[in-house]
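Morning run. Coffee first, then this:
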Amino acid sequence: MTSSLGDANRLELASNAWDSEQDDTLVCRAVRQETHDVKTFVLSPATPGRFSYQPGQFMTYAFDIGGETIHRCYTISAAPTRPNAISLTVKRVPNGPVSNWLHDNLKPGVSVKALGPMGSFTCFAHPASRYLFLSGGSGITPLMSMARTYHDLAEPKDIVFVHSARTVTDIIFREELELMARLSPSFKFAPICEAANPLAPYSGLMGRLSLDQLKVIAPDFMSREIFVCGPAPYMAAVRTMLGSAGFDMAHHHEESFNFETLSAGEKTEAIEGEIALDAPEAAKTYTVEFTKTRRSIEVPETMTVLEAAKRAGMRLPSSCTQGLCGTCKSKKVSGSIVMNHQGGIRQREIDAGMMLLCCSKPTSNLVIER
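And here it is:
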């Protein structure tokens, strides 16, 4: 009887909305092995609360790893129709500091800090009767959230879900997607494997997604709302493919988070010393010093600190570059800035001297703990 009452009380408390501004602590409740190198981590607030978000949105997490706080964004792979918990699904990346820490250390009972949900990559922003979901690798997560949501709602959405994986054993959520296809006549799942796995028989499509394959899988793709997520080369290939077919790109939507690798701008070879920046001659410039890397750069008042740092060859964590995700959050030791963010930082963090490099322009010399 005691256990039953406890469960009832928990459900009653879970009717309260969770607000990351008030309580940013989430507790890992379960860990699920999806493939040999992909795990799903189920999280909920320490004090039960209900999550409210749109399918496809993400959370920004703060992980304490090796004495350093590292921020990463991960899409919510769960569906908002099941609001008492969220989940993030992460692939272990060789030499990836966060993904390896998550796989090795995030276990039931361990707490993490989170901010969100946020993001505009969601099917709710583009309602349609027919969708085409195209995903590659771990880019499946936001599209899985969308598919789970429509499946739970039993809405008569015509959805074709095409997922590209290396081999059949790398298909994330395979069993669940196949079950959804069996249960719903309006849902079609079509995996494509780049290579064969001799230990796992597979009779489906092989190779890489092509226009000819797409025409077979979804002959009416030209009239569908298309959502795409995956590695940058995959999404670039999809854009090229759709463009060659004459697809109206106003109905093409994409999202990509790849935080374990450097972006194209961050792969620029580091240059010792200072470099010239493209800025109006009349613009004032300020010195920005980074305490941990012991680098000092000149930043025009018209340019964000992140952009100037990238041009100087510095490799700083970043993603959205719009003040939304919080990945570039850093401690401002001294100096003044103008910061125009979009929710990626809390007011109490700003009051404590934190800043987002991607949307902050200097108004004096700066010292940044980074």
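Residues 1-6, 257-281 have pLDDT under 50 and may be disordered. Good start to the day.
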